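Protein in question filed below.

…
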Amino acid sequence: MPFVINKFKLAFEMSKSIFNAIPDVLSKAEEKSALYQACNAVARAYMATITRTSKATSDRAKAYGSALMATRSAIQDPQRCKSDNTLLAVWLLGLYELLLSIRKGTEPVATPGWQFHNQVLSKLIRLRGSEQFTTQNGRNIFVIIFTNVETQAFMSGQECEEALTWFLEYHKYCELSEYPILRACIFSHHCARICSHVRALVDTGDLDKVLSSSPSILQEMDEVEQITHPLSHDETVASCVVDHPTTPYTRPKHTYPCYVGVHIIQCNFRMRLSYAVLEFLGYACKAPGCTPQQRMVFKQYQRRCVEELKALVDKASRILDMFPDVGSDELLDRRKGVVYELDGNNSGTEGSPDAVHAPFEEPRERSTPAVKLCFDLQQPIDGKSTLLFNHNDRGISVLRFWFGNETETHQRQS
């Protein structure tokens, strides 16, 4: 388990009061449980990427098989299928697939296994209903898996319509200190909703339909920071302002718990929206009915999308700079030593902060940005892709994340 906890170090630092749900639930997992087995599979996958030995690869495959069997059994049980343990087990199996797809020097691909696990997550939340949101751990686990669920939805070109109901349930039970997290989820959903619409239009292959839909897509992108539906009536939620990507960032003197995590989630989904619209406009420009004037407007918007992506990378880097340890040699040394830390202490098990406001430490100067865009924005988008925030020793690498049918997936991986 220390290996899995190590994988979440940066996430813990960004959102301690959210990700503390993981070690809290893990600490109560029985050895034969689905959660314990899934945790072991992820740990084995992590070790295999470090050691690259045949034994580690064999152990990884065996652990994954055991985890699949245990999780399948839990899902089929009418009681266990509704537990935090089972939800986290399925999420960890998706993480296992993701670890295998992220290889040095290559762009990751959404495997059929990763997509399947995310579909199961959505079904389990629906099955659990309001029970998911009645406890702090339940709400935190929802936030942890929410990114996967929304990503899977817009990859398929289908809006996650249940999200609006989930937000209302979350709002019913959450504390006032959780409102910024809820606002970030609402914003992320509306970014993903537009991405879903874009994906559905592009997948039709009808360029004229893409062209005729361009005004509404661009208007939705322009207004996405202001949308707070389905909680538009709540002034406290509406007061959690989401800035436009190009708005100059000012570091606050005091802030709330999860400030960094909230803003990184917002940057993540807003970058995905700019990236999706960048692709969308490329198709609109190719439509037979596209006029020179329209093409000129689309090119201006494409340049704006590129500027937004760069601005959001810079903003996310400045936000992560608030962590003295992120990108430091100390954090890197932790990873190098993880192979030998079989009995390491779990630093992420402290309780959630009680205070709503807390001062930041003065950030250290760094020679390289904490967030790095790992592909050329000028290259054409050849195939279905979105963006992936890959947490690593030095911060976050923003990668292209490819998806599509099984044939396309195999071609990308080979």
In short: DSSP finds 17 helices and five strands in the chain. Confidence is low (pLDDT under 50) at residues 326-364, 406-414. Residues 199-320 form one domain. The CA atoms of residues 387 and 400 lie 5 Å apart.
